[in-house]
Amino acid sequence: MAMAANMAYLTLLALSIAAAAVESATTYTNHTVGGAAGWFFNDSSNTCSANYSSWAANQTFDLGDYLIFYTNTNMTVIQTYNLTTYQSCSTDDALDTDTFQYGGGDDQFGVAETMDVPLTVEGPNYFFSDANDGFQCQQGMAFEIVVNHGLGLPPSLNQPPPPPYTAPPLPSVVGSPPITLQPTSGGFRACVNLPWVVSVVLLAVGGIVFG
């Protein structure tokens, strides 16, 4: 009897794990950073609104997922793939190819805003706030995650960059197509090259002036 109960329990557990695996493999997820606490820093107590490392440790991240930062203009979000940049809590020596900033530069403080950050690179991803010259980061406003392949990037995030702009060629005067001259009196119609017509007119005018 006990063995049958154990077998039933193991079967149910296996089915639950399989269902969870199927669900995670067929959906993309929006992760609210810090949960209900959001992405905030208290300047009076010098504390973060959540333990972001603990929050991240309980999440599973895949390509195509989004991190949702509910915050305000007092904070920034720095995303980097460079461990040295992350550990320094600064973007001073960061490269444009591996470090990106969301928020910041607003002249109004304390204004609520939401930042949506897509996960587009597999492997280690690092996040921190460099506000107050990196002080917020040093006090724990930072976390690292590992992004799994999952379903891969959705089409909306997997588009190649547009080709570089190429200016159209300038029109060439040499070899221009013939034009049609038609007198207003309804006489003849002739197709000639414009440079030839101009030359004839100039010669005629010159003959009148110097004749």
UniProtKB/TrEMBL annotation:
Ordered alphabetically, the record's keywords are: Signal
Q: Which GO terms describe its cellular component?
A: plasma membrane
For the Phytocyanin domain, which residue ranges apply?
Answer: 29-149
Q: Which InterPro entries is this protein grouped with? A: Cupredoxin (IPR008972), Phytocyanin-like (IPR039391), Phytocyanin_dom (IPR003245)
Cited SUPFAM superfamilies: Cupredoxins
- Which Pfam families does the record match to this protein? Cu_bind_like
Taxonomically, which superkingdom?
Answer: Eukaryota
Query: In the record, which residues are listed under signal peptide?
Result: 1-24
List the molecular function annotations (GO) for this entry.
electron transfer activity
Q: What is this protein called?
A: Phytocyanin domain-containing protein
Natural source organism: Rhododendron griersonianum
